[in-house]
Amino acid sequence: MKVIVCAGPPTSGKTTVLKQVSKILKEKGHRLAYLKIDVQFANEDILFKKEFDIPTKKVYSGDLCPDHCNVVVLGDAIKWAAEEKADILIVETAGLCLRCSPYIERSLGIVVLEATSGMNLPRKIGPMLTLADVAVVTKIDLVSQAEREVFRANVNEAAKHVAVVETDALHGINIGHLVTRIERTQDISAPLLLRGNPPVGTCTICVGKKEIGKEAHFGVLRTLETDIFYRGE
Amino acid sequence: MDIKEITILGGIGKNGEKELLDTVSLKMGDVISIVGPTGSGKTALINDIELFANRNTPSKRKILINGTLPPDEFTTDPSKNPIALITQHTNFLSDLPVHQFLTIHAKIRGAGRSETIVNETLEFANQLTGEPINEHCAMTELSGGQTRSLLIADAVIIGNSPIILLDEIENAGIHRTKAIELLKQYKKIFIFVTHDPRIALLSDFRVCMKNGSMQSLIVTDREEKKAAEEIKKLDDLMLEFRTAIRAGGHITFKGLEERLKALGYVV
Asked: Do B158 and A150 touch (CB under 8 A)?
């Protein structure tokens, strides 16, 4: 079974891209399973079920970091997809963290970026881009060709190895190239490992201490002026 | 790749009926117009060309370059794309300063010495605009006319695109006759979507659209070229009045009468 992990800022067009991809993959006879991970709301599982009649699931990460949630649930999700006899598992992540990335070894990591989101976006989003295999640039119909070229150059400056696919996903333009990449992806196999190192995982703020100021927290801290230090046991 | 010819193979119109024109071929150096009422599918046609449609768009048209299917790299790498499309909606979204953006684009395109080429691009664009472009201002701060001028200049000079598609250049807020005059100095395929008789008659031929379908192809013959000369004069007169109004002038009936008489018209 192949695993496709898709990330990208909210509203960048992840769902639209994956829908176009699913349509073609389904026509080609692949058996798909779809998992959506989001923070507090998602209805894509229902949309994919209705449109493609494939097994779907969704997970709300709630108070957990969504990429952390991804690590925790993906093992089960792969088992579930295998039980459903899928040959491709599509994982659409919440895709909003700029410090870690959800891609795992031997999966196909896809990051979806909007051509309209500013020339410096590729420099800002870190591992979500640099650890991906393919960057899908959406909404190309809205920008000039010159800007598309500069955006593409900036993607490859931030991540040289990443293949760029430009698309107007609403109309499915260029999606064929992405499908080819997916079909060439190897099957997933143990051990299942995250591709990159996440940053500091558990912290007081993430588990609900809302007070502002370093005095209220423990673990890895810093002041405005000093470097990070550790307080606690 | 040396572009010699682009061929549009007809598909279907809005009602699903076969297009009347089933092949339209444009050779290097051709200037053509696409005309027809609003909603007749003019923009859809140039979008098909830009996307190298391969029976995969609603019109089911197919585009060939030099008689064969275009290579993948035309669509996968924008710097290899021989087509530049400038629509009424194309905007710059980059907040980089104009000069810096053009320099980066020239570098990516490997378009020779970037300083020279950037200046050439700005010079071209400034011939089309009312107010010259300030090269230090952000791309997003340019006016509509300045944006369109720069898009055209960038496509022609930095992009050096052999095929240029222009959607309703008459509404772009630029000197359209100056633009066409300048553009014609470059050997390219130009495709204008237009409602403007002067632009349509400057073309070698025009494709007439109706209900999403290519209906007919009309070659600008001697008769039309003769009429075009007169239309040009009238159009210049309109431009004169437009310039006068823009400059804060006052229009008089007598002034109009005199100008018409000078052109040989009886008022």
From this structure: no
